[in-house]
Amino acid sequence: MAEAHQAVAFQFTITPEGIDLHLSYQALSQIYLSGLRSWKKRISRIKNRIIKGVYPASPSSWLFVVIAILATMYMQSDPSMGLIAKIREHLPLSLSLSAQGQTVLSVLLFSTLLWLSLILALRFCLKLLLSYHRWMFELHGRISTKTKVWATLVRLLSSRKPLLYSYQTSLPHLPVPSIKDTLERYLESVKPLLDVDGFQRMTRLAAEFEKSLGNRLQKYLKLKALWATNYVSDWWEEYVYLRSRSPIMVNSNYYGMDFLYVTPTSTQAARAGNTITALFLYRRKSRIPGTVIPLCAAQCERMFNTTRTPGEETDVLQHWQDSEFVAVYHRGRYFRLWVYRAGRLLSPREIQYQIQRILDDPSPPSPGEDKLGALTAGNRTPWAQMRKQFFSSGVNKRSLDCIEKAAFFVTLDDQEEGMMGENPSVNLDRYAKSLLHGKCYDRWFDKSFSVVVYKNGKNGLNAEHSWADAPIVAHLWEFTLATDAFHLGYTADGNCKGEIEHSLPPPQRLSWDIPAARKSLAVAQALADDVDCHVFPFREFGKGRIKKMKLSPDSFVQLALQLAYYRDRGTFCLTYEASMTRLFREGRTETVRSSSNESCAFVLDREHCHKLLRKAAEKHQNLYRLAMTGSGIDRHLFCLYVVSKYLGVESPFLKEVLSEPWRLSTSQTPVQQMELFDLVNHPEFISLGGGFGPVADDGYGVSYIIMGEEMINFHVSCKHSCTETDSHKFGSQISQAMMDLMTLLNPDFKEATKANPDKQS
Predict the structure, then answer these.
(1) Are 704 and 556 in contact (CB under 8 A)?
(2) Cβ count near 76 (within 10 Å)
(3) Less crowded by CB within 10 Å, the N or C end of the chain?
(4) Which positions, given as ranges, span the membrane (predicted)?
(5) 228-247 pLDDT per residue, tens
(6) Alpha-carbon distance 10 to 27, whole Å?
(7) Residue 465: active-site member
(8) DSSP 591
(9) What are the percentages of helix, strand and coil residues in the chain, rounded to 5?
């Protein structure tokens, strides 16, 4: 009750002598400071909106235009060619201004219109420049004069430091490829995967589609491209993610890991304190790193304060204004933890203090509370029905609102994880499974992302996929890890830094009146038990040695995966590699079909494999560039399929294409802020990256992060229920394929490896 009394600004009592008034100056001071910070925040937001709205110009450029026009008018010259006089004539008669005042007002109006016109012209020029993508196809070190001129003009037009969303209106729209080009690329991609009869059949279906239904669907798609900001993204979000009725745990959500070799502190509450602080500091960031080529930042808008809410037919992404609290789960109990007090972000030490209060709380969970999170892990329709029945009003709705409107979700896990103990490899695999699905009820899989802090100080996160793709979350997590370890830091005894205000109110325990989620838990548990994960650092070499061989590191890894899969299964398969399309407004991803004629020829031909390796790598790079620049295959065909469904027409070609399984689904986790990690002086601060579950029941999911110059970390997943897949066996095939490719490029590498056995993983 002490905290409640301190929160009262004034008290009064009525006595026979009159009213006895008691003011709490400390409380009034806090109210005043809270209001002051709130107004400062509002002013800052308005300022950012103005700066973003006038980019690539600046607000101060308006004053320059006004002064320039006034100066020319003073010199008896009219730069408006009579427009200022016309404006003066049409000013309202009610304005009681002198002739000079009317002239000045007319100049201000003309200058503002001229300034806005110049902004639109600059934006149009910047959009035209950003539509040029030929630079991506030029050889390294052989940049054309045209590209050099283009880069100079882009730098000139974007010389001012941009805010996060400054470029949004200047980014080009994603172009719709021609039907002919898409079908040609599709047939080329499936040729090595089909026998002669199968390929002839697909060629016939593609030709029939192009002649009949294809052009009709294409017209509707082009109409959408003219009207919508992006012709793919809204349908991709809705039909690939939100309309799926299967569990999002494992099937859709993905995870990110902590450092491989180090844990900054072994104190759970302290690690949580710094991690939560770093995430809120990231939310404050308004500027983007300086890059020549801007990328779309639309996905960042829903990073915080966002929840995927279930529906019986389709889910909905809900986003709220910045909240000042997080939802915390510990041993079956849910808490609301305020991280702001009177508009001030609590210090890391204060957040640690509050987290420790939760850890020390001995209260047991209420009936049904401990397994409540399983509702978000099971099938979507039962969760929607339960939500409608039990969470529409009363205490359950209020508590659920606290979770869904929180900035993000935090799990204080009572397990210890990481690469540790007598069998670090097995523990690393267990760590991956823990982040991917946990106990199926101790994560809130609907939140945009959930942070997990383990008993031994290790951390990680689980991210929902519909609102954004992995590079967005990876950027957030890189900043969080670096800020935690290098900027916030810890005291010598492993605690957070900063002072503690002991009068902080304790975290609020959430209340529930609910039945147990047994069905959802059973579905989720079966799915989690079926997942086979293997995480391993490949230490033999990294991108440094690959680049010395004049090959793209990503192409090298993709070819190693093709070789490993062929050795594992004795055949080739449709391979998915995620590529981003954020060069375009509201762009998300495109598929790179990594299994090509060239890659298959390399795997099969042992006589000319050295030459074919380079040819296959060049082909892969070209496929990646085409995907990034809007000339991919799969998003175009997907949108044509959606149009056909809206029109109620069937296409045998599209139906077959969209039903083809991706037995090898791959993704590279990009390292975007290497400057935050000093790997020269602190090589132990290596990030493990993250991973995801298998896309096909009989296939593999492979994620990899090329970390520094000498290491590549792999995350492999598959399902125990498939007798033909084994994550550990496939991981060994990947390692061997990587070694064999490097030996092929550099025969001396094998001897050097033998002389250095300590470097073997």
Answers:
(1) no
(2) 6
(3) N
(4) 50-74, 104-126
(5) 999 999 999 999 999 999 99
(6) 8
(7) yes
(8) E
(9) 50, 15, 35
- Cβ-proximal residues to 496 (8 Å cutoff; 6+ apart), any chain: 270, 273, 274, 277, 347, 348, 349, 351, 352, 488, 490
The token duo for 522 is 């059973």
Give the burial string for 515-542 (b: 16+ CB within 10 Å, else e): eebeebbebbbebbebbbbbbbbbebbb
d(CA 430, CA 534): 8
How much is the pLDDT for 471? Answer: 93
595-622: buried (b, 16+ CB within 10 Å) or exposed (e) per residue? bbebbbbbbeeeeebeebbbbbbebbbe
Is pLDDT of 202 > 90?
yes
For residue 264, cis peptide bond before it (omega within 30 degrees of 0): no
Catalytic residue among 330, 437, 465, 636: 465
Looking at residue 258, the DSSP 8-state letter turns out to be -
Give the mean model confidence (pLDDT) for residues 362-376. 94
Band (11; pLDDT cuts 50, 70, 90): low
Q: How many CA atoms lie within 13 A of 599 on its CB side?
A: 34
Burial string for 387-421 (b: 16+ CB within 10 Å, else e) reads beebbeeeebeebbebbbbbbbbbbbbeebbbbee
Secondary structure element (H or E) that encloses residue 751, with its range: helix 748-755
Q: 3-class DSSP state for residue 19?
A: strand
The residue among 628, 682, 541, 746 whose CA lies nearest residue 296 is 628
| CB neighbour list of residue 394: distance below 8 Å, 6 or more residues apart | 513
Supply the DSSP string of 405-468, one letter for each residue.
TSS-EEEE-SS--SS-SS-HHHHHHHHHHHHHHTTSSSS-TTBSEEEEE-TTS-EEEEE-SSS-
Contacts of 645 (CB under 8 A, 6+ apart): none
Q: Could you write out the DSSP letters of every residue in 105-120?
A: HHHHHHHHHHHHHHHH
Cβ neighbours, 10 Å, residue 440: 27
Note the pLDDT tens digit of each residue in 662-684. 999 999 998 888 777 777 777 78
Maximum Cα–Cα distance for the chain, whole Å?
108
Strand-pair partners of 452: 411, 460
Token pair for residue 30?
């806090």
d(CA 268, CA 456) in angstroms, rounded, equals: 6
Cα 755 to its chain centre, rounded Å, is 42
Structure tokens at 189: 């991609």
Residue 116, token pair as written in the block: 């806005």
Q: How many CB atoms lie within 10 A of CB 706?
A: 22
CB neighbours of 371 closer than 8 A, spacing ≥ 6?
332, 441, 516, 517, 518, 521
Residues whose CB falls within 8 Å of the CB of residue 169, separated by 6 or more in sequence, listed in order: 123
Token pair recorded at residue 127? 């959009």
Whether 689 contacts 703, CB under 8 Å: yes
Side-chain-side CA neighbours of 622 within 13 Å: the count stands at 11
Helix (H, G, I), strand (E, B) or coil at 541: coil
SS3 11: strand
Contact present, 312 and 385 (Cβ < 8 Å): yes
List b or e across 723-756, with b for residues whose CB sees 16 or more CB atoms inside 10 angstroms.
eebbbbebbbbbbebbbbbbeebeeebeeebeee
Whether 3 has a pLDDT exceeding 70, the answer reads: no
Alpha-carbon span 659 to 40, nearest angstrom: 53
C-beta separation of 440 from 329 below 8 A = no
CA–CA distance, 355 with 343 (Å, rounded to integer)? 20
Helix (H, G, I), strand (E, B) or coil at 363: coil
HEC string of 66-90 equals HHHHHHHHHCCCCCCCCHHHHHHHC
The two three-digit tokens of residue 64, written as one number: 């320059």
Which amino acid belongs to residue 209?
Answer: F
Count CB atoms within 10 A of the CB of residue 451.
24
| Burial status of residue 704 (CB atoms within 10 A of its CB: 0-12, 13-18, 19 or more) | buried
